[in-house]
Amino acid sequence: MPTLSLRIDLAPGIRVGPGKIHLLEAIAAHGSISAAGRALGMSYRRAWLLVDELNRAFAEPVVAGQAGGRRGGGARVTPLGERLVASYRAVERDAAAAAARHLAGLDAALAPR
């Protein structure tokens, strides 16, 4: 069945899509940008650049660093970051529900596989 992939243009040059949302979810799960990047098969540099892009796009950070200690530093998704993920997932669910009938029609029109 065809699937829907959603990207939201929040403003010129500011896009949020599945990759950035997966990264935020992985940071929340793993507690660090580097561990999240590893879990997603992404370099630390790429993960850090995406986080930096998101943090610069919003009035306040969506990911905050945590100072190191004996166990080293880390990162956490801020309440705004959590709201971003929740809003994206809600739009994604609503869009998928709205498109389901059309996607089913496209699926029926595909050549046998």
Note the topology.
Blueprint: E1 8-11, E2 14-16, H1 18-30, H2 33-39, H3 44-57, E3 63-66, E4 74-77, H4 79-109
Antiparallel strand pairs: 1-2, 3-4
Helix pairs in contact: 1-2, 2-3
The CATH topology is: Arc Repressor Mutant, subunit A
Question: What is the CATH homologous superfamily assignment?
Answer: Winged helix-like DNA-binding domain superfamily/Winged helix DNA-binding domain
**CATH architecture identity:** Orthogonal Bundle
Instruction: Identify the CATH class.
Output: Mainly Alpha
Mean pLDDT: 94
Element string (H = helix, E = strand): EEHHHEEH
Structural class: alpha+beta
> How large a portion of the residues is in β-strands, by DSSP E?
5-15%
Structure annotation, total helices: 4
The outline comes out as elongated
Oligomer: single chain
Indicate the low-confidence ranges by residue numbers: none
Distance between the termini: 11 Å
Rg measurement, Å: 17 Å
In the sheet with the most strands, the strands line up as 1-2
Helix content: 55-70%
As for the number of domains, it is 1
Largest sheet, in brief, is: 2 strands, antiparallel
Number of strands: 4
